[in-house]
Amino acid sequence: MTSSERSFARRIDLTSLQLFVAVCELGSIGRAAEREFIAASAISKRLSDLEGTLGTPLLYRHARGVDLTPAGESLLHHARSVLYSLEKMQGELSEYADGVRGHVRVHANISAIVQFLPEDLGAFTQAHDAIKIDLEEHLSSEVVRAVQEGAADLGVCHLADNGIDLQSLPYRDDQLALIVPATHALARQRSIAFADSLDFDHVGLHTNSSIYVAMHEAALAANRSIRLRIHVTGLDAMCRMIENGLGIGVMPLRAFELMQGGIGRRLKSVALEDAWARRQIRLIARDFSTLPVAARLLVTHLQASDANPDRLAA
């Protein structure tokens, strides 16, 4: 941080930012004063000082209240972000005061969450009960972006672009399969090339999901198109749609096997012969060596879990 940036940071008053946000949300200095239990003149003085510090007007003042200037719109966006980060910091630090000795933010794609992470994270928390893990489900592309931007310490996903400026380590292998109704014409086949499934309607995941992107690229390579009948956001929803005759679909084989208890013999899996159907789920971080101790312990645990054959068979 340069000296000018440090000086700017020291001149910004957090209370003034909070009051500025309150005025913006309520559209009036008077209403903000009532909510915040402070004199309207005191708020007005703080806002004037804030405008003086930033060197630009933030509000258009009129008889009915206030409106934001373009600079005010920009400040509101950043002020909310700063205040949210402070609230999150307070929450996390209070947890340390209560005895939590580690906190790891993990973003993962649906394949990892459905197939592997429940058992692996469960075993980790049993061994390290003082470490808190915040897990969020996102598309693989969003997981990568979250790690790049620092919103997540650790990502678990498929990497389509090996040129990204992140470090990665192998986690688990992921086999895709074609899921069809038990009465479908393809149900008797042991394996199939994906291109041979394109004569039938498909149920697909979100268009930005790594599975759908792989399917789309495979269809283009075969000079075909996917007869997509419906998009769903989850694997359980995909199975329900396939079960009710709305098409066939591609999903991780282990996830399908884990869900078979609810769908019985009504659906069948057919192995996909395409090379892209066998994928690798990877752990990603900006720099594994600089992760907090708790996050590095989790990375070590997740990598070791792949070497345990009993865990793979579970």
How would you describe this protein?
The protein is α/β, with parallel strands linked by helices. It folds into three domains: 3-97, Winged helix-like DNA-binding domain superfamily/Winged helix DNA-binding domain (Arc Repressor Mutant, subunit A), CATH 1.10.10.10; 102-171 and 280-313, 3-Layer(aba) Sandwich (D-Maltodextrin-Binding Protein, domain 2); 174-278, Periplasmic binding protein-like II (D-Maltodextrin-Binding Protein, domain 2). It is 48% helix and 22% strand. The chain contains 13 helices and twelve strands. The chain has helices at residues 3-11, 14-26, 29-36, 40-54, 70-97, 110-115, 117-127, 140-149, 210-221, 235-243, 253-263, 293-305, 309-313; strands at residues 59-62, 65-68, 102-108, 131-137, 154-157, 167-181, 191-192, 202-204, 228-231, 249-252, 267-272, 278-285. Strands 3, 4, 5, 6, 7, 10, 11 and 12 form an eight-stranded mixed beta sheet that branches. Strands 1-2 form a two-stranded antiparallel sheet. A hairpin with a 2-residue loop joins strand 1 and strand 2. The protein is elongated and about 80 Å long. It starts with a helix and ends with a helix.
Order of helices and strands: HHHHEEHEHHEHEEEEHEHEHEEHH
What is the CATH class of the largest domain?
Alpha Beta
What is the end-to-end distance?
A: 50 Å
Radius of gyration: 26 Å
Keywords:
single chain; 314 residues; alpha/beta; Arc Repressor Mutant, subunit A; D-Maltodextrin-Binding Protein, domain 2; 3 domains; 8-stranded mixed beta sheet; two-stranded antiparallel sheet; 13 helices; 12 strands; 48% helix
